[in-house]
Amino acid sequence: MYAAVDLGSNSFRFSIGKHDGDAIRVLKSVREPIRLAAGLDAAGNLTPDAMQRALACLAGFRDTLKGYDLEAVRVVATSTMRQARNIATFLPQAEQAIGYPIEIISGEEEGRLIYMGVANALDQPTERRLVVDIGGGSTELILGRGLDIERVESFTVGSVRQSLAFFINGAVDAPSFQAAILSARSIFEDGAPPYQPQFWKRAYGSSGTIRAIADVIEKNNLGKGLTPASLEALKNRLIELGHVSRIDMPGLRPDRAGTIVGGLAILIGVMHELGIGQIEPVEAGLRMGVMWDLYLRSTRRDRRDESVRAFLQKFNVDTARGGRVADDALVLLEQLKPSSDACARLLYWSAQLHELGMAVSQTGYHKHTSYIIENADLPGFTTRDQRTMSRLALGQKGNLRKIGEFLADGDFARAVVALRLAIVFMHARVEVADAAPKLRMKNKIELELRRGWATEHPTLMYWLEKEQEAWDEVDIDLTVRTGS
């Protein structure tokens, strides 16, 4: 069983599912309307009240998740946590409350996971489709065919923000709707051309907002399906009611009334701007995509491997050199006995990409590699993953003072040792796989070389002397000796 926890701008949710044949069957879902986006103050900070609501919810989620025998749990946070200025203060408290790491994913990664959930639910391997997801703080547009994503963009407009910005104090009138729709259209207009109908056969709406709008239209006989005409009919009905407190319609939960107006304005805006005639709501999205991602990782079909391969090809990196360093780095790391295997894969990918920056400059390429890894759009990787890999890449050569503050993390320090020595052995043409040196690290680094290596590989001791100097600068002793 897998658990996917979605910390959205409007609601916190989790789903527990089990892979069954060609599908993931959802066993339990929980939703709490936290409205985190409404808890941002004028300075962009989460208010104490919003943080307390969120922490209480996460503690409750933790208690529920404990009751299941879960193979893997993944917690992802979206737009509001991406933007909160005091997230560094809140995030450790949130992780402690739920008991799992929280990944603040980019809008593009959010879109990719949404599409993964939708595509696997539809099971139409050749269909060209557009997926629209309107969240509390952002809206994602994803274009794809079957399981393959061709284009994804995230736009900073969501139902909570649009509702708060244009329907002041809950008042609903025609001028407010017109302003909210025009605002949404202005955000989508520059990005619209690649998503227009000539590039897809069907359009799907994956968010709770779109599904809620579809339910209200159906149960109040306002039209057939999600079309511009039915959305206009719902807009007019809401204007007649005049205030969100008076929105009491079949198919709409009371906690959604405050954000349905903003979500409807965005949906009208995106349909007009992209020329969409009809959107089909689909019961799949981010959480289903997260569970599929966990399942694929468990079967060693990790899309992060695909991202790295694509990057190596894009930047014309020497894959043989990168692969050799990656393999050797893992051999060395295993000897250092890290406390967990969490950084092993990040080390492996960092090693594969370690010469990426040579596409920019042969001098100081490690700095360019570090910058590209941290700032690139790498599908499957979280911001935290990329930051760790960026630091590893930065620490692959030269002085270690630039990453000195991070060496206090024992596992990170071990990964740096493994990466730097693997690169040294590659430069000196030492075949580590044939007879790995002995490597230990506690209060100091101890390296025992195979007898004869210093003679067989004339530059080896030169490289290792430079390593000793680098580690001395951060007060860590590197001892090198030859085995008997």
From TrEMBL:
Q: Which GO terms describe its molecular function?
A: pyrophosphatase activity
Keyword list (alphabetical) reads: Hydrolase
Q: Name one Pfam family in it.
A: Ppx-GppA_III
| Alphabetized InterPro entries for the sequence | ATPase_NBD (IPR043129), GppA/Ppx_hydrolase (IPR050273), Ppx_GppA_C (IPR048950), Ppx_GppA_N (IPR003695), PyroPPase_GppA_Ppx (IPR030673)
Ppx/GppA phosphatase N-terminal domain location is 18-296
Which residues are in the Ppx/GppA phosphatase C-terminal domain? 304-468
- Domain of life according to the entry: Bacteria
Task: Note the PANTHER family from the entry.
Answer: EXOPOLYPHOSPHATASE (PTHR30005), RETROGRADE REGULATION PROTEIN 2 (PTHR30005:SF0)
What is the protein name given in its UniProt record? Exopolyphosphatase
What species was this sequence derived from?
Pseudoduganella buxea
